[in-house]
Amino acid sequence: MSKHGRVLVAMSGGVDSSVAAIMLHEEGYEVVGITMKTWDYASSGGSTKETGCCSLDSINDARALAVNFGFPHFILDIRNEFGDAVIDNFVDEYIAGRTPNPCVLCNTHIKWEALMKRADVLDCEFIATGHYAKVRQHDNGRYVVSKGFDESKDQSYVLWGVSQENLARTRFPLGGFSKKEIREMAYQMGQKELASKSESYEICFVPNNDYRSFLRHRRPELDTEIGPGNFILSDGTVIGQHIGYPYFTIGQRKGLGIALGKPMYVIEIMPESNTVVLGEEHELERSQTEVGSVNLMKYASLPSDGFEAVTKIRYKDPGALSKLQLENGNMLVNFEHAVKGIAPGQSAVFYEGDDVVGGGFIRKV
């Protein structure tokens, strides 16, 4: 009988999840490793060597580490579920004129659900991942995610959608450490090659981070069905043509294919007329947004007269003070000071201190 119970650890083959597995093993948990095969590089239009968490090399690295430390390891093929829920949504969101947030969908609807189902089959009380975040039970009995110690690596933003039931069985061993400390741990554990392993900051299924080519590969009919459209200014003045609205995102400045003698940004996308609105940086400012698909985490409900929180509108956003008002399942967010680049489709995550109050997908601004 193990000291702390049996835990299923999601292992990508990278340094974070590998160290998480070793830490739990050394703490006395009965560790079971699992690597999820979520996609095929070739099916995404990749032409170079397959890399990242789903490559054969990464799967082999995860398995070798498990064998070395004496715990079992399994490979779980979830390519169909991942494709339906994450990749199809990614493409559909761009076609709808929004900017998708695939990591949130993957965590909420794919990884956690897949891990929990397999944990039950393997009699594991807990699951664990290498996310830089923390989870605890609040005084009110609810489970809450909070920021990791290393704010530069904090991943609480992408975890707002995880259910209470799943959080109750989740462990984040890396939450109290910095990335530098984790690499040093790997080195001290005798995993020198792992300690220096590079990491990718790109969307895992988009080769070379080129989402335009990815969209064309997934939907070859896009260019013929949508085609070129107009760039306009906020007053309606036509200033040029673009290659098609799905290839642009709110806040984009580079790659517009048009020069106006001063920096211009995408401030609005109008899919119904295949129009992209450009403006100067200050025109990106908005003081309000509406958020849907809301999941409350720290509290079961919010006060009817509103709730003050810091709202992050993108992963690396420092956040802005705001007042939240929940109405008919949607969250109305009023910012104390205008913020730039609110993009429909992205996540808005609400914080009270380091704790995630909840989050949802930005519907409109």
TrEMBL record:
Cellular component terms per the entry's GO annotation: cytoplasm
Gene3D superfamilies: Adenine nucleotide alpha hydrolases-like domains (2.30.30.280), HUPs (3.40.50.620), Translation factors (2.40.30.10)
Root EC class: transferase
Active site residues according to the UniProt entry: C106 (nucleophile), C204 (cysteine persulfide intermediate)
Residues engaged in binding ATP: A10, M11, S12, G13, G14, V15, D16, S17, M36, G130
Domain called tRNA-specific 2-thiouridylase MnmA-like C-terminal: residue spans: 305-362
An individual GO BP term: tRNA wobble position uridine thiolation
Region (Interaction with tRNA), start-end ranges: 153-155, 314-315
Keywords noted in UniProt: ATP-binding, Cytoplasm, Disulfide bond, Nucleotide-binding, RNA-binding, Transferase, tRNA processing, tRNA-binding
GO molecular function: ATP binding; tRNA binding; tRNA-uridine 2-sulfurtransferase activity
Alphabetical list of InterPro entries matching this protein: MnmA-like, MnmA-like_C, MnmA-like_central, MnmA-like_central_sf, Rossmann-like_a/b/a_fold
Main localization (coarse): cytoplasm
Compartments, as annotated in UniProt: Cytoplasm
UniProt feature coiled coil, ranges: none
Residues annotated as domain tRNA-specific 2-thiouridylase MnmA-like central: 228-279
Recorded family membership: Belongs to the MnmA/TRMU family.
Entry-linked NCBIfam families: PRK00143.1, trmU
Name of protein: tRNA-specific 2-thiouridylase MnmA
UniProt gene name: mnmA
